[in-house]
Amino acid sequence: MQSPFLGELLGTMVLIILGDGVVAGALLARSKAENAGWIAITAGWAFAVIAGIFTATATGSPDAHLNPAVTLAAAIGSGDWHRVAVYVPAQMLGAFLGATIVWLHYLPHWAATEAQDLKLACFCTGPAIRDARANWFSEIIATFVLILVINAIVSKTVGSPNAIPAGVAPYLIGMLVWGVGLSLGGTTGYAINPARDLGPRIAHAVLPIAGKGSSDWGYAVIPVAGPLIGAALAALAGRAFGM
Q1: Rounded to whole angstroms, how far apart are CA atoms 132 and 222?
Q2: Under CATH, which architecture does the 4-240 domain have?
């Protein structure tokens, strides 16, 4: 039953379960992890990436992109676009399912939480200061760094005297995501992944979440398009640098 579609779906689902899960634990009222803070959230997302990569590779997707921005960068870098039509829908569906599971897991906590913005933050990102130009720059820059360094990590796994063992790469990528979150995530919440933001935002819009407010669709284009632009620029830079 393994397939690239299934691997990307399940890997992204695990990514969101653990990623949105740590946010919900830190933000929702009467959670034992309430007020755990930014360090816990960024660490949780790093571990979520590692778990998602291993899940994807074990269920049929050795690429384990889990992110349309990574898929776009790979297509630009290789010139092979056939995976885009398979991976991106799987990633979107996996993200939606993962967010739905987080909603079910924390079911009594939504009604116990008064702040609508905190409930939305458990599903998708939002800016600390709403400034469209700055928010675009933040998502583009953070994703550019993510993709450029992923390319640097992967480029050392094959055919190099300093090759990184393939099994180590997921841990390095998880550490990279942790670093991006700590250093660049404070402005917009570092979506750096269109599926991570859009799939759960759709889930927030359609699920019967107690006391929810707006899904903030006016902002939604930035965490979707910004990472794609950053990924494309990083892919072009990687080609220029021979990565």
Answers
A1: 8
A2: Up-down Bundle (1.20)
